[in-house]
Amino acid sequence: MGETLRVALIGAGFVARDHAAAWHAQPGAEVRCVVDADPDRARSLAAEFGVEHRDTDFGSLVGHPGIDAVDICLPPRLHLESTCAFLAAGQHVLLEKPFVTGLEDAARMLEAEQHSAATLMVAENWPFASATRRVRRLVDDGALGELFMLRAQNESALYVEHDGEVAAALRLSAAGGGFTMTAGVHNITLASLLMGGIESVFAYSTERPASPEPFLDRDVVISARFGNGGIGGMFFTGRSLHVGGRRLAFGLTGTRGTAEFDILSGSVTYTVDGERTSIEQDQPSMGFAEEIAHFCECIVDGRTPLTAARRQLESLAAVLAVYRSLYDGREVRPADLLAQADLATAVAGAGGGVDG
Predict the structure, then answer these.
(1) How far is CA 92 from CA 62, 294, 315, 351, in A?
(2) Are 348 and 339 in contact (CB under 8 A)?
(3) Structural domains of the chain, with CATH
(4) How far is it, in rounded angstroms, from Cα 184 to Cα 311?
(5) What are phi and psi of 251, to 5 degrees?
(6) What positions does the domain GFO/IDH/MocA-like oxidoreductase occupy (predicted)?
(7) Bridge partners of 271?
(8) Model confidence over 206-250: pLDDT tens digits?
(9) Which of 13, 11, 18 is nearest to 33 (CA)?
(10) In terms of DSSP H, where are the helices of the chain?
């Protein structure tokens, strides 16, 4: 790899546009090719960001000497094949969340990573968002005291039909699950990061699943117990017509204070020892640029990414525990699902620390 990281963007949907903008602003990196099965979509995104090359088949870029890294923005069910191919070829991979949709696929991807010298990072942007970074400083500094309660919302109109178009997120064959799998995983990951992991979940839905496997859920409420001894609730819906767009909100309660923040708006309000502070950011960031900068730094320095696949395995297990709870009507421990899949040691080996 030379001084410039040469990148191929695999997939040209709405998430890819956010990634393309972040790559465009990243010093020392350049998107050299956009790949999408729809040639018009690939052409449009390439033209928007001044990318010269485009293709309809990612296979032509596996092992390509002009591509150092790929940013995979495909639907979740297409992640395994493409990621394993690029890792085997020694190319670095930034992979959109969820990295896979089942524990068997997770085991295969982790094995591919183990046999590759390349870096694999899951593109989970919420830990890098400006609001998150501000609140994490409060938490790490002990300003809120010991956290004992978390509240999280993820409300959008993702499952409300727009102009008759059916997005990949609405097709189980592509998404591998519903709103919890494709959107709620954001909240689950951040809750786990802030509260020391997720010990157990008890979930409720407006729909009755036919099996314990992921389905196209639209509305879910989760009661959770966390690794730090705290408790919390998470509320997800993909059919909210809330005026003003999405709500991506969190609330934290600690022994010294509270904090409320929103990933989308970047707003942060916290109260410490009775004193209230509100912060409205002029240019809030949802973390796309920061996660890509982190990916590049990990490649150069040989560090383990904050959102490495092994660290995201616990989030996937928690998502699958939600679906199991919806079917069984009981509390489910993600650790039990990992143990049944012989993946408990993978999570233990991931460590709880954060590099950088």
Answers:
(1) 11, 13, 22, 22
(2) no
(3) 5-125 (3.40.50.720), 127-286+314-350 (3.30.360.10)
(4) 17
(5) -135, 135
(6) 133-259
(7) 258, 276
(8) 999 999 999 999 999 999 999 999 999 999 999 998 766 789 999
(9) 11
(10) 14-24, 39-48, 79-88, 103-114, 130-140, 172-175, 179, 185-195, 288-301, 309-328, 334-340, 344-350
